[in-house]
Amino acid sequence: MKTGKIALITGATAGFGEACAERFAREGYRLIVTGRRTERLTALQEKLRTAYGTETLALTFDVRSKAEVVAALEQMPDAWKQIDVLVNNAGLALDLSTIDEGDTDDWDTMIDTNVKGLLYVSRTVIPWMKARNSGHIVNIGSTAAKTVYAKGNVYCATKSAVDAISQGMRIDLLPYGIKVTAVHPGAAETEFSLVRFKGDEDRAKDVYTGFQPLKAEDVADVVWYCASLPPHVCINDLVVTATAQANAYYTFK
């Protein structure tokens, strides 16, 4: 059943973003999906059309570039700017290292993607929501926002920033009826660790050995639940982990 509503999901080429796109498509939403890999966005667009008859707009851009973000979103037809749900999912971790040995290029990539990218997209979309006094922003954080772990320094800092920005958004957007939710997942078996360890499959796989981690679909279900609540109900902050994981530091294996 088509709802007529629109969800914009960043980082939709894999993991949480792709799973969220499928979940919202299943619920009858029209979708704007963004990412850096055109071929993956095209494949997702076709998959959603075939499976759910979803009308999907695929936009290729890098959230790290303010110019690309603004150009891609502003050029959309006005009908597509009536966004009901924004899922700020684009993000990544790169490597594990002590602060004195960290790769500053990795730091820049994490800060530019996880923090500035989220801000650039939000800054563009929020005025459209304000004009309608309606909307819901879901920011994907991490348990790393709540518990700092060894060698996680800058990544943890970026997710702490997402936590703080989400709280600030909630306050600033209160007069406009716009909901803001931060969803903080724990260990989930996606491309996350493969990206963090720069393609080292053995090292990435070892992260999830000995326990059952979350799946991308689990997180998508949580995001959908938050977005599907009645207009007067808003979940502000939500931490979700595998049963075997208490926080970013403690996991029973």
TrEMBL record:
Record flagged with keyword Oxidoreductase: yes
Keywords: Oxidoreductase
Coiled-coil segments on the chain, per record: none
PROSITE patterns hit by this protein: ADH_SHORT
Pfam families listed in its UniProt record: adh_short
Keyword Cell membrane: no
Domain of life of the native organism: Bacteria
Family: Belongs to the short-chain dehydrogenases/reductases (SDR) family.
Protein name: SDR family NAD(P)-dependent oxidoreductase
Organism, as annotated: Chitinophaga pollutisoli
Taxon lineage: Bacteria, Pseudomonadati, Bacteroidota, Chitinophagia, Chitinophagales
